[in-house]
Amino acid sequence: MVRREVVLAATREEVWAALTRSEELSAWFGADVEIDPRPRGAVTAREADGSVRRGTVVAANAPWRLVVAWEPEPGGAEGSHVEFTLDDVVGGVRLTVIERPLTPGESGRFLQAAVR
Amino acid sequence: MSPRKDDRVDAVFQALADPTRRELLRRLSHTPGTATELSARLPITRQAVAKHMVALSDAGLVASERSGREVVYRLTPGPMAEAAEWMGDVGATWDRRLENLRRRFGR
């Protein structure tokens, strides 16, 4: 599991927009990202090397919590679960990111869906 | 079929989440041992040790070998390195992204 925190000089609405608007997200994520910020909405990230990662929005509670699951790719990138949480703190908003590998059950659901 | 790499990384994290299993791994990192030997130095039963060893074996963190009537467990650290590599890669990526985001909000 990886956990990171950053305090941003912004409002929660601004940070939420940076997470859930495709063009804003793409500006800092390091990939060209498209996101449909609703539960079961699609997420795709095109990396500079041309590879594409696909994911699904698991939860979107504006403007404080966003959860995305990245699909495992057969023989490629690992599946993971990413949770963003926003809290008001002195000086702005604390953004906490927790990323962990998918459990075998979560991973299996994605792989099954891909077969159908 | 070998388990997927991400499933293995997840299994390592699950296995390491338990303090007793971490203690058992610490002991096995010094020397291989049987459930009887390991339980003698810990406040848990031989059966409890054997049960934890199943979780650790599933995560690929220990290997077992029969020796007479006992089973000897030894540490197999490969999957631990894999999990550490995952954390290193993912952590470095988030450090980069969050630095971009911090700059975006002008600090």
Summarize the structure.
Chain A is 25% helix and 45% strand.
Report the CATH topology name of chain B: Arc Repressor Mutant, subunit A
CATH architecture of chain B: Orthogonal Bundle
- Residues in helices of chain B, as a percent range: 55-70%
Question: Taking all residues together, what is the mean pLDDT of chain B?
Answer: 91
Q: What number of domains of chain A?
A: 1
Distance between the termini of chain B: 50 Å
Largest sheet of chain A: 7 strands, antiparallel
The whole-number mean of residue pLDDT values of chain A reads: 92
The strands making up the biggest β-sheet of chain B line up spatially as 1-3-2
Q: Which CATH class of chain B is shown? A: Mainly Alpha
Beta-strand percent range of chain A:
35-45%
Query: CATH superfamily name of chain A?
Result: START domain
Oligomer: heterodimer
Please state how the strands of the largest beta sheet of chain A are arranged side by side: 1-7-6-5-4-3-2
Strand content of chain B: 5-15%
Can you count the beta strands of chain B? 3
Task: State the secondary-structure class of chain A.
Answer: alpha+beta
Q: Could you say what the CATH topology of chain A is called?
A: Alpha-D-Glucose-1,6-Bisphosphate, Chain A, domain 4
